[in-house]
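Bumping my old thread because nobody answered last time. Still need a sequence for this structure:
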């Protein structure tokens, strides 16, 4: 049996369901597109959807999940007409996968 160690922001993720969810998220093309698109300046969900061709409803689903696991930062404000809006920005500086160590290790740093 192979054990994969996941370090998220320097913390070892021991709970198997959380570890598996993080690994599945990293393996998902849409999630990685959103992570890549939000590097640098924060973007709205509509901007992310336009840049990635991911439907807006799926963008909202992904940004919630990516925020929950520490991949994205969410900031909000109110425009002049009083409408709230949210911006999403990548928090990940690097993802390192080490396969020659026992256990295999994935480290996500922000």
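Sorry it took so long. Here it is:
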């Amino acid at each position: 049996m192979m054990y994969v160690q996941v370090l998220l922001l320097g913390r070892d993720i021991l709970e198997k369901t959380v570890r598996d969810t993080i690994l599945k998220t990293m393996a998902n093309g849409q999630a990685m597109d959103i992570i890549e698109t939000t590097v640098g300046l924060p973007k709205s969900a509509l901007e992310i959807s336009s840049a990635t061709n991911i439907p807006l409803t799926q963008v909202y689903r992904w940004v919630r999940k990516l925020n929950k696991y520490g991949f994205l930062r969410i900031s909000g404000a109110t425009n002049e007409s009083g409408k709230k809006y949210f911006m999403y920005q990548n928090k990940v500086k690097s993802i390192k996968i080490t396969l020659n160590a026992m256990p295999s290790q994935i480290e996500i740093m922000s």
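Strands lie at 4-8, 11-13, 72-78, 84-90, 94-98, 104-109. Let me know if any region looks off to you.
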